[in-house]
Amino acid sequence: MALKATQSEKTMYERIPSVIVGSPSEGAIAVAHEIADLIKQRQSEGRNAVLGLATGSSPVRVYDELIRMHRQEGLSFKNVVTFNLDEYYPMPPDSVHSYVNFMHEQLFRHVDIPAENIHIPDGTLDQSDVFEFCANYERKIEEAGGLDIQILGIGRTGHIGFNEPGSIRDSITRMVTLDIITRRDASATFFGLNNVPRRAITMGVSTILRARRILLMAWGDSKAPIIQKTIEGPVNDQIPATFLQEHKNTLFILDDGAASHLTRNRLPWLVGSHEWDDFNTRKAVVWLCQKTGKAVLKLTDEDYNENGLGELVTEHGPAYNINIKIFNQLQHTITGWPGGKPNADDSNRPERQSPFPKRVIIFSPHPDDDVISMGGTFIRLVDQSHEVHVAYQTSGNIAVFDEDALRFADFISDYAEIFDVSDESLLNLYNTFKKAAEAKAEAGVDAPEIRAMKGLIRRGEAKAGCRSVGIPDEQIHFLNMPFYETGKVKKDPVGPADIKIVEDIIRQIKPHQIYAAGDLADPHGTHKVCLEAIFAAVQNLKNEDFMKDCWVWLYRGAWHEWDIEEIEMAVPISPEELIRKRTAIFKHQSQKDNVMFQGTDKREFWERAEDRNRNTARLYDELGLAEYEAMEAFVRWHF
Ligand code: F6R
């Protein structure tokens, strides 16, 4: 696929050309091919290709594809000169966190680029030498002939390189202070915010804008708000990426998630004629209610006409008919019987009444997603006599602090001493762990026994959560999917062993309902991989007899919620159930108060869950439906 912007009336709000690709891999491969074409063209002319490179998660697949082309197609990097955008400061090059290390691991050591052609800002300089170094960096870029292609990711602050809010258009390579959001986003990789450097050396905005071609990649829902502001908002130094609007040869490569807030996707009726199927109509009506502050049944023809929905009301109106239809659709998503209501007419209910009781598997990517994301529904399913199993997909071990592992080791050592357990390894466990934890700084990853202990801590919490909801231990399953067990924040991609584990548990339980986390904005991608494994397993099993009776429901977790128009089942939670849900979440003590992977949201997980569930109930209420304390929401996946 060649990279070409799609431009039409649909993009009338957009000030930077973009292309929306089917998947991050597809986009990254296309970027790699554009780079490879340049390299080859320059080879034929006997010239160098000068590349501006980025680190971070966005370009990783680009580097994979370049390596593949080097190995399989003989693409040579002998004529390639590279300049990296940035480096943390201070930062030794051999640290696992350095961008020098990143670039060598992800690209350079796998290809034939001459070492002297590689340039990365130096994180080891004396502060007094930084200014001179930066001026030199700019000079070297010019001497190399300027950047032919600069590839970029975008931070949620709107940074490009490490040009944080406040960076001016004329900024050049320099030392900067990192924004707190950027540092929080990086805190996972550094095992805690305090370890993230406060400063960095970065190319400036003007350095980037001098590149002849700029390709910015953004993947996933979490980038959607900043992408919308960058492409459609005014140019301003509070979002440095907006300066790219002034560059004449920039292309954004986005997946559906990152593009989802663009006007053409969010409010498509504002950019031209539109197909008014049920989903689009629901989306428009919900938006209109929110815009006018009215309930569905109170909307008038004028409301539709005055807010860009004249086409809808002309084709399918009057307003009264549209309102009734959408009101009923929304009403029919609400059920207090997530497993189906036995012996009741189910023609307008989200779930079938039979079979009853149902066998249910709740897949939980981490050991607490079940209760955080769908604790209320979990409680109802159990109370309503369904056979509920929970399958914890990963151990969640990297999210446990060292001090917690040490506390448990100490407990075991004390227990062994007091109760005369003469096993030396138990008696010394605390000291062994303490030494191993100290050695971690160098190794960058936990020793296997500490990882195992951390996994056990989370396992105990998960069991306590399930017991508080009321399921027996034999219905609690720990899958420990191997893709997760790298000991690092970066996980392996899903593999056949992961899929097989998921398949086996589905085959064993033969569920009538599967609940899975469709929570794709999880910052570390674990939920996404867990979902891919479930999708693949279900596809492999779909011709089995028992699967004909199986429905798959997707929930969303700690990070975001379905939009109202997407929801196919909304399960009310009473005030008492909300407290029971909170109690179950509280069992996850290692994830309370001060968590390893907080993200930018300062609220604890139980607070986020309650706020989100209350918000869904409030939105239903404002649309004119019944007023509940809280609600959990689900979308059905038809396989
Ligand atoms: C990386 C860089 C940053 C990242 C941005 C997005 O060298 O300068 O601007 O491109 O923070 O990071 P990811 O791709 O990890 O989302």
Task: Spell out the key features of this protein.
single chain, 639 residues, Rossmann fold, 2 domains, 7-stranded parallel β-sheet, 7-stranded mixed β-sheet, 17 strands, 41% helix, globular, binds fructose -6-phosphate
Polypeptide structure, described:
- The protein is of the alpha/beta class and 639 residues long.
- The chain is 41% helix and 13% strand.
- The radius of gyration is 27 Å and the shape is globular.
- Fructose -6-phosphate binds at residues 54-58, 85-86, 152-155, 159-162.
How are the secondary structure elements laid out?
Elements: E1 18-20, H1 24-45, E2 49-53, H2 60-73, E3 80-84, E4 86-89, H3 99-106, E5 118-119, H4 130-143, E6 149-152, E7 174-177, H5 180-187, E8 199-202, H6 205-209, E9 213-218, H7 224-232, E10 250-254, H8 256-259, H9 263-266, H10 278-292, H11 301-306, H12 310-316, H13 319-331, E11 359-364, H14 369-383, E12 387-392, H15 402-418, H16 424-427, H17 429-443, H18 448-469, E13 476-478, H19 496-509, E14 513-517, H20 526-541, E15 551-555, E16 569-573, H21 575-586, H22 605-622, E17 630-637
Parallel strand pairs: 1-10, 2-3, 2-6, 3-5, 6-9, 9-10, 11-12, 11-14, 12-13, 14-15
Antiparallel strand pairs: 4-8, 7-8, 15-17, 16-17
The chain binds fructose -6-phosphate.
Fructose -6-phosphate binds at residues 54-58, 85-86, 152-155, 159-162.
